[in-house]
Q: What sequence folds into this?
């Protein structure tokens, strides 16, 4: 199972407590993980990536295994540790302050 | 006994304020959607317990929430706002063409006769309609694709369609206002539109009398006299007696005619309210005194309403969608400030008291009169 951690605002929106565990058939990529996530939680469509091109929203980041994977291609394989569930895939709202 | 429900959108969530018809003791519920900007919350006249809320975030984009129990519980509905055709470009701040991009929903206008029909005014300026209670949205592209569209430019707050008025007497007639394009009218349920800005003069644009380009801040109509519209423009308070064919200024003796909201008394079509703001560069009340101004003559002759409002050291603003009137026998008036106060008057503005003082900055205020 793929483990996904969402920012607090999106957990609230989707009524999620804690991590999400997803089954992904086929290659484990940013696109396949987000497809599975949005399929289970349709209210998240449009909040992480846009409806059409699937482009990441500007202030969203994807981290895993202490790496910033935000700029990886959507169909690039995610690290094995994410694919095996050893490490979570983190969807992060970019820091902003002031 | 009648009661009222005030729907407040703020920079950090929504609040629902409820009272009986005396409007003296208030129940405050919220924040709903804490941490999100709530641009607007409005109830369906056809089914008052159905509410729609525009929830938005720079991080997570647009969400539309719907309640079917008067705001006790909510569910997210559709958030896909796709322009119906190739969006094209409008003017950017530097005068260059800029692609039309959806940013957020500024205003939701439920239809008076159908709880499933609701209109949305969005940034970049466009008008959308849902016929299934907000689950899906389709643009009415005739407005955005008006031949003047490529010349529209955003105001400082973005190029927003912020006002939608449905004419109760003439099916198919509707009005929309865009900053900074101006006012528009449709007589065919939104299929086609014409600018209705004749009579406006705006010093901030190259051609002061241009067909479009005016920074209209708000329109208001009394349902019993729908051919009369009032406008708070960037500068100037305006009135038309012929559904926008020609406007004339009714700023009269206001201390300043800059401001954002404008509204009309529920039972007196000639009684109009504005909140004068010092200037376009000083978005706070003149002299630090928060004063609502009321005209009982349809404009020109204005009186300050101050009882219960701070008359010193007050430097808040009142935004364009942050004033509303109820329809109880003694008309109630409500407005919210960027300082987080929501003020209520149960006597048509003669006296005021805060319902709450310390909310996040208020973006919008609506009120429902319930039996």
A:
């Amino acid at each position: 199972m793929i483990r996904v951690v969402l920012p607090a605002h999106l957990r609230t929106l989707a009524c999620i407590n804690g991590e999400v565990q997803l089954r992904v058939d086929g290659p484990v990529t940013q696109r396949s993980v987000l497809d599975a996530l949005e399929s289970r939680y349709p209210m998240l469509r449009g909040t992480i990536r846009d409806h059409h091109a699937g482009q990441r929203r500007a202030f969203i980041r994807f981290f895993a295994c202490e790496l910033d994977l935000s700029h990886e291609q959507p169909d690039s394989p995610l690290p094995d540790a994410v694919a095996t569930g050893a490490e979570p895939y983190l969807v992060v709202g970019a820091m902003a302050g002031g | 006994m009648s009661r009222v429900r005030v729907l407040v959108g703020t920079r950090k969530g929504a609040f629902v304020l409820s009272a009986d018809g005396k409007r003296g003791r208030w129940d405050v519920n919220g924040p709903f959607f804490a941490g999100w900007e709530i641009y607007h919350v409005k109830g369906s006249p056809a089914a008052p317990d159905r509410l729609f809320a525009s929830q938005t975030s720079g991080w997570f984009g647009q969400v539309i929430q719907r309640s079917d129990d008067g705001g006790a519980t909510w569910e997210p509905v559709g958030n896909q706002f796709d322009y119906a055709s190739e969006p094209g470009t409008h003017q950017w701040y530097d005068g260059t063409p800029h692609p039309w991009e959806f940013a957020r929903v500024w205003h939701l206008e439920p239809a008076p006769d159908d709880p499933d029909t609701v209109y949305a005014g969005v940034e970049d300026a466009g008008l959308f309609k849902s016929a299934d209670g907000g689950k899906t949205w389709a643009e009415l592209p005739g407005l955005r694709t008006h031949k003047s569209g490529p010349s529209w430019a955003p105001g400082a707050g973005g190029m927003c369609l912020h006002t939608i008025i449905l004419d109760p007497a003439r099916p198919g007639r509707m009005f929309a206002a865009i900053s900074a394009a101006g006012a528009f009218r449709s007589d065919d349920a939104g299929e086609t539109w014409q600018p209705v800005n004749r009579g406006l003069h705006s010093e901030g644009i190259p051609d002061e009398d241009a067909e479009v380009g005016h920074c209209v801040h708000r329109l208001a109509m009394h349902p019993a006299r729908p051919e009369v519209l009032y406008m708070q423009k960037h500068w100037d308070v305006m009135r038309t007696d012929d559904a926008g064919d020609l406007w004339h200024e009714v700023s009269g003796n206001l201390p300043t005619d800059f401001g954002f909201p404008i509204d009309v008394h529920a039972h007196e079509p000639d009684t109009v309210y504005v909140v004068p703001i010092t200037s376009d560069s000083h978005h706070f009340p003149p002299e630090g005194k928060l004063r609502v101004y009321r005209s009982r003559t349809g404009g020109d002759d204005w009186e300050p309403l101050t009882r219960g409002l701070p008359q010193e050291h007050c430097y808040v603003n009142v935004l364009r969608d942050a004033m509303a009137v109820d329809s109880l026998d003694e008309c109630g008036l409500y407005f919210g400030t960027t300082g987080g106060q929501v003020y209520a008057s149960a006597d048509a503005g003669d006296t005021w008291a805060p319902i709450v003082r310390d909310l996040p900055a208020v973006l919008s205020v609506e009120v429902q009169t319930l039996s």
